[in-house]
Automatic annotation (TrEMBL):
Listed name of the protein: Rhizopine-binding protein
Species name: Stutzerimonas stutzeri
Native organism taxonomy: Bacteria, Pseudomonadati, Pseudomonadota, Gammaproteobacteria, Pseudomonadales
Leader sequence segment: 1-22
Keyword Signal appears in the UniProt entry: yes
Keyword terms, alphabetized: Signal
Length: 304
């Protein structure tokens, strides 16, 4: 074999190796930067630091605005990023995002909140949890705490958010098995701790008879528990997410329980999926993250 051919082969191998380990640029568009999303982003950043050759994340916050998020994704496309990760601002309005990213030939990972579509095209996956199952798990455990009867208040998440609908549907599927548990309040706290606290204060001031609270996330649940503690009430409050703040609230006996949607595992898996798609891995459809019921009895094993 001639020296010229050997040189060409060597150059080709060098080119492939540098491409394989070049720093990846990944656009990350989140719906609204809050406590839970902060944990997801941190997990993605930590995983990005472990990628051979490195991965740089370009983070954008839509502030709950669908139009702004579409614009942010279009900007990522114009920048020629290697992959895009989207936590959708509106799960019913992801069609344009999917269409434009796929047309640009860029791998797309949806994170945390599943778009309202039956299936995804090639090069698009979802990383997250089964929200119906989470609502069912939360309510079944809470119903047991209630002895199968009593008055229940439900703290809803953002009303435009599909996770709110799915988690609450899961709660109500279980309630159908417990006719002696009545829903006496059902209002949105918009995922926020202060709004959960305000709603609970309003219910207490109105004299509403409540025996337990099912919150669509830990933050609202913690807010409700803070209001209850100020009123010297110890009725059970259940959350969802299992954030570090939520687990600490369980240890303080503010929350009776939560359902862990591990943000560290979810964020890391989303980053892995984006890198895998860039590298040609055959990833399709839904990539589910396991969930766990957390109570004071087992909370220590889930501390991070």
């Amino acid at each position: 074999m001639s020296k010229r051919i050997l040189t060409a082969i060597g150059f080709g191998l060098w080119l492939l190796s540098t491409q394989a380990f070049a720093e990846l640029r990944i656009g990350v568009a989140v719906a609204q930067y809050d406590n839970y999303i902060a944990y997801l982003v941190r997990a993605m950043q930590e995983r990005a630091a472990e990628v051979p050759g490195g991965a740089k994340l370009n983070l954008e916050d839509a502030g709950g605005d669908v139009v702004r998020q579409i614009s942010q994704v279009e900007s990522f496309i114009s920048q020629g990023v290697d992959a895009i990760i989207v936590n959708p601002a509106d799960t019913a309005a992801t069609g344009k995002i999917t269409e434009r990213v796929v047309a640009a030939g860029i791998p797309l990972v949806y994170l945390n909140s599943r778009p309202e579509v039956e299936r995804f095209p090639k090069g698009v996956v979802f990383v997250g949890t089964d929200e119906h199952a989470i609502g069912e798990m939360q309510m079944r455990a809470l119903a047991e705490r209630m002895g199968g009867k009593g008055n229940l208040a439900i703290l809803l998440g953002r009303l435009a958010h599909d996770d709110t609908r799915k988690r609450t549907e899961g709660v109500k599927r279980v309630l159908a098995e417990f006719p002696e548990i009545r829903v006496v309040e059902e209002q949105s706290g918009d995922w926020q701790r202060d709004q959960g606290m305000n709603l609970m204060n309003n219910w207490l001031l109105s004299g509403r008879d409540i025996d337990a609270v099912a919150a669509n996330n830990d933050e609202m649940g913690i807010g409700a528990a803070m209001a209850l503690r100020q009123a010297d009430s110890t009725l059970p409050v259940a959350g969802i997410d299992g954030t570090p703040d939520g687990l600490a609230a369980i240890d303080r006996e503010q929350l009776a329980l939560s359902v862990l949607r591990d943000p560290a595992a979810m964020g890391a898996r989303a980053l892995d999926a984006a890198v895998g798609l860039v590298q040609g891995e055959a990833l399709y459809g839904d990539i589910w993250i396991d969930v766990h019921l957390v109570t004071r009895e087992n909370s220590q094993q889930y501390q991070r």
